[in-house]
Amino acid sequence: MQESRLFKIVYYLLNKGQASASEMAERFEVSVRTIYRDIDTLSSAGIPIYAKTGRNGGIRFMNGFVLDKILLSEQEKQKILSALQSITALNGGNEKDILEKLKALFQVNSENWIEVDLSRWGEKKRDNEKFELLKSAIINHRCVRIIYANTYKEPGQRTVQPLKLLFKARDWYLKAYCLEKMDFRIFKLNRILQLELLNEYFSPISYPEQKIEESQKYTPVTLRFPKEMAYRVYDEFDIEHIKTDAEGNLTVTAHMPEDAWLVGFLLSFGTKVEIIEPVRLKGIVAKVAKEIYEKNKT
User: Is residue 59 a contact partner of residue 21, using CB atoms and an 8 Å limit?
Assistant: First the structure.
């Protein structure tokens, strides 16, 4: 509590320039004696603050004082402001007020360099509400009940302990402990069809990072694309995984999970992708493509 008040005193004086002890005591709802003790604490920390007596007296900083000369370098201040800007872009909450206060406190300008929209096209309200609810559940350690559409079955109900939100490869995921499976799981946010915050609390635990590697089986996949697909290839794959030949055609080699998602992903390229390796994947994709044809032919 004292640390918070000390920060507020510094911010208050930086903005106002000078104030009496009684004025600050009233503002911060403490005694005048407590204010003087706080001033002594700040002074002991190396901040040049002093009380001037007389008619025009009051508590103030020495002329020319700026906080960054004592505590933070220019680079450190910019890092703090940039980090807070990214949080503000995600939340749009009270962090905006904190950001403005820190700009004044540091006496620097910081460009508003980032904007983040968590929603899909046309789904802004619902997607942002889902994100905010999960954020609240994680911070307050509350269980949630979800209806989840997985890869292989009809949507099913799960009760989970939400641990962390993860952004990876253009999608948001929820790291959680699933009470039905009694194990750690990762859920894609877009596949969470319904979400209910429960009045059940849990003790915070850490998601074991090795679980990601154990649960995902990666296969080296080599694909060839014509040059007119370059726009999408660079959207989907890292440039280090792409080789271009003299004609501009592209060959991609990457480790990918060999599952239903991969089949659907490859089919999304239509006739503009050739599977080189693994050979068995060619047969799987061809079989699914034939089934699609048989179902939809006229």
Answer: yes
pTM of the model: 0.50
Can you give the residue ranges of every domain in the chain?
2-65, 124-214, 217-296
**What is the C-alpha end-to-end distance of the chain, expressed in Å?**
73
Does the N-terminal peptide bond of residue 278 adopt cis geometry, omega within 30 degrees of 0?
Answer: yes
Residue 148, token pair as written in the block: 């989840």
At the top level of CATH, the class of 217-296 is: alpha beta
CATH 3.10.180.10 fits 124-214, yes or no: no
| Nearest-angstrom CA–CA distance, 245 and 247 | 5
Give the pLDDT confidence score for residue 175 in this predicted structure. 92
Report which DSSP code applies to 153: S
Model confidence over 116-159: pLDDT tens digits?
565 566 566 777 788 888 988 998 899 999 999 876 667 889 99
Helical axes 74-91 vs 95-106, angle rounded to 10°: 160
260 versus 232: which is more confidently predicted?
232
Other Cβ atoms closer than 10 A to 175: 21
2-65 topology per CATH: Arc Repressor Mutant, subunit A (1.10.10)
Q: Is the dihedral of CA 257, 170, 138, 197 positive or negative?
A: negative
User: pLDDT digits over 242-281, tens only?
Assistant: 999 999 999 999 988 888 888 989 999 999 999 999 999 9
pLDDT at residue 70, as a whole number: 47
**Tokens matching residue 159:** 């009760």
Find the DSSP H helices in 141-187. Answer: none
Contact 266, 284 (CB under 8 A): no
Q: In the chain, which residue ranges form alpha helices assigned H by DSSP? A: 2-16, 21-28, 32-44, 74-91, 95-106, 124-140, 210-215, 230-236, 260-267, 279-296
